[in-house]
Amino acid sequence: MPTLLQTLLIETLPSDTDPIFHSFINTVLPAMEREFGLIPALGSSEIAHYQTLVKQGDAYGGKLRYARENAQRWAAKADQSLLVHVLNGLLTAWNLSTHLPQHLQLQEVEKRLLCLGLTLHDYNKYVRGQGEAQPPPKAHEIEPILNLCRELGEKLNFQEFWQQWQEYLLEIAFLAQNTQFSIDSNPIISNWENDEGEFTVDDRRLNDILRHLLAFGDVAVHMGDPADVAITTKGDRLQDHLDWLTIPKKLVYHRLRDCRGLISNQIHNAVVSFARQLDWEPILYFAQGAVYLAPKNHDAPDLADIQTAVWKNLIEGDAENNQKGLADYFKSGDVGFVRDGKGLKVAPQTLELFTPADLIRLLPDVVQIKVANVKVPATPKRLEKLTLTDAEQKFLLEGADIRADRLAELIILAQREFFEGCQEYINWILTTLELQNQISPEQTQVQSGGVNYGWYQAAAYYIATHTTLDLEQVSNFLKDLGDRLATWAEQNNLLKGITSPTHEAFVNYLAQYLEVSGFCHQPTDFENQLAAYSEAKVNNQPICSLSSGESDAEDQLDTVVLFKPQQYSNKNSLGGGRIKRGISKIWSLEMLLRQAFWAVPSGKLEEQQPVFLYIFPAYVYSPQIAVAVRRLVKELKRVNLWEVCRQWRDAGMNYNGLQNLPWRDEDEAEMGRYGDSYSTKDLPFLAITYTTTRGKTTTDAWVAPAFLALALPILLGVKVVATSSPDPLYASDQEFADSVILDGPAGFWNLLGVNPCLRLQDLAPALERLLVSYSLHLECRSSPPDARWQALNGTVRDLATDVLNVFAIANEAKREPGKEDVKRIWNYAQIWVKGNVNMQEKLKLIERLVTEYRQFYQVKVNESSHAVLLPISKALEMILTVPEQIDREDLILQAAGQLKDALERQEVYKRPYLLDKSVDFSTRQAQELMAIHAFISTCVDELFLGLYKGDRALLQENRNRIKSGAEFAYRWLALQEKQSEKTQLSGEVA
């Protein structure tokens, strides 16, 4: 079955992709995921590096005393797995190869060599990541290099990709060893060729083309910032490779030195679209920008042109690339408007993003969507507030329905926003509705408590005189009314000129934070920021609750923010009595984008306890990987943790089983919600998704994101930050070294004993530990379909206290465990004790005790727990009831005698020694007595005096746990013995 990454790539690769590369994705990539997925190419923990270097004699540093220094240096870098290192490097080199001059274009064999050479170029990191005692071969050790490449090629399924690959093993190994032009390379051809083998491919093609392509890809994936092409030697090296390959291009970049979320991605994608018009081709994507191949003699772009293009893209979208802008969502009423008991409200940003005339023309569509209280219209209640005769009341009630609501709210909203105090507007509306003789201007302005009642009377009157109008006809009438009103207002100069502080703030934001090759950016003005912040504090002005006063702010409105009105309310001066919750223009845009793109009602998201997942590239994305990640984020469905645990168990409790999960909402994709209905151009420089919960506790909110935060880096090679903060904690993956960060997770995470900041090699153990706790909880403490996640803290606390609680919890299921149940629960315990010496020793002790008493006492596994546990129960009973002054030897003898008496009352077939008729009876009895004495001695010495320090109270407290563990150990050992007998019997038959 295809892996998740493989499926995403196959679906998103352009249709004209070379079949050779398609074949590589289909054959080699799954094996790379298996072998390279958790091998560090960069970063990883200092402890893991140090242990490997000590084991290998610090071959990398030359002397063992440098092991600590080397480990610290490597661990200081941000994490990047060997999988994404190789895959992004290969894609980058492949993309670059299409720009080669005609006479340097790669042949079929060379394309395959490019794929396989780059796949193996970091074989030394693979060996180090495996923790092998034997260090990787040195550059001059040709034969060991060939053997290692042959071994890796077999593991990575090279044969299916290219049947003749071993005939070109010398070329593959040469390219793998000499990808970089460094002191550790060995490019001398004579060192490689001998009587046993020579190069089949022209060595000039290997050295002059393939090596430079591989080197370009390898250097590129070491960059962590798009500006590296201009300010570091990496950029110089990349340009040297371009020049050597005679590709007439220059590397340029754009970078946004700030990260807000969706608005940052919108800016990035708009800049990429603008750059394409300049013939700049994006070749590398970062969380904070992109690197392009540009013509050598390109003209520097103008900042004003970029600002205009980005603003237009943000508001209007890009129809050519199927990108929707904010205007589309405003027009549909999805964002920018809210309706409460007093009618429709308009967000200030709405007034700034549209001209008054345009806004008047789209109001009828907004009213049609927002005013939808068909069953309980507001007009009848409004009419009750007016002084009307019975006859008037009866007549108006004939038109007091949803039609009148919509007409009234359109008129009221237009007057409040555009024609406040304008007598001409009142007269024009009455004349247009032909009500100038029935309702006076004064009657239309009757209001109370901020609600206009008069226009409801006018609207009801109009509908009552046009009762045959259906909803569609009313909708058409409102559109016509809005269009005529806008035209009339323009002709009579009644509309104020538009000013857009949001546009001004956005332009200033771009000038301050956006860098593009060719022009200098405006540096951050700290003094201005400090002055604005201080003035706001002194004058009790709103301060942005999200950016802490960096930008000018305005009062938060419920039409903008996604959180509750009382959230973030402590930003006022000491002793101040007035709460001023503010939000800056940039953050207002961000919140509106989230409302639009996520279809989240304003003020409602917080009720669902969202946890945001910020997905960063591990250094860099190639264009193909960026598209694949984008598709997953767009189609990621709600995680079913029941199904997650089942898939994991079915795969032998291996994380590879998670590949088969239904990660994406396939039904919606097929129906057209996704797929071709969204752009293939807007890429997730910083991908953002979020989870919500129907539960009421923090634990409910965190169970799914905790799993996703661990699984996505393993499956896709990305880096994930999970947090309840709507503001990304980091602007770039280079600001944190870890692969996963969980910011303020629920309490169960701390009980798991797992660090909230995880390096690459910590992911698999943490995921196993998490899924063990989830699986046990769902199997034994849930009440389907209710998972009862609020009780997960108790489950994890029990597991963290004692590994024997694994078996105690399993016994809560109140059913007889079958063979598969025994295997599964025992494996849970084996996984749980990893890395904990005390728990490992305790589990081994329980297994040893059961092994010892199975020598003299065995029953069928389907018998009662009392029968299975007879020896351990008797031993514990004697230890706990014998007086404390009894010494060790007497305790052992008394307990052994009691156990012997208990066995005498059991059937003979339960006593293995007595069943052995090959020896005389007295010998069998002696053997049984010796075995009983050895068992009781272990119980007293190892269990009572050793593990529990001779503390009878502590032993009593753990008595049931010991028995639960012993019961499962008995069933496990019986199952193993039976399986061994079957294997032996089948071997004899064969």
What's the helix and strand layout?
Blueprint: H1 4-12, H2 19-27, H3 29-36, E1 40-42, H4 46-55, H5 67-75, E2 80-81, H6 82-97, H7 108-119, H8 123-129, H9 142-155, H10 158-161, H11 169-177, H12 189-192, H13 203-220, H14 228-231, H15 233-244, E3 249-256, H16 262-277, E4 281-286, E5 289-295, H17 303-316, E6 317-318, E7 323-324, H18 326-331, E8 337-340, E9 343-346, H19 348-353, H20 356-370, H21 379-384, H22 390-397, H23 402-418, H24 423-432, H25 441-444, E10 447-448, E11 451-452, H26 454-465, H27 471-491, H28 501-513, E12 514-516, H29 526-538, E13 543-544, E14 553-555, E15 581-584, H30 585-598, E16 611-616, H31 623-635, H32 641-650, H33 666-671, E17 687-691, H34 698-716, E18 719-723, E19 740-743, H35 747-752, E20 757-758, H36 763-780, H37 792-801, H38 805-811, H39 819-832, H40 837-853, H41 865-868, H42 870-881, H43 888-904, H44 912-915, H45 921-947, H46 952-957, H47 959-989
Parallel strand pairs: 13-15, 18-19
Antiparallel strand pairs: 1-2, 3-5, 3-12, 4-5, 6-7, 8-9, 10-11, 14-15, 16-17, 16-18, 19-20
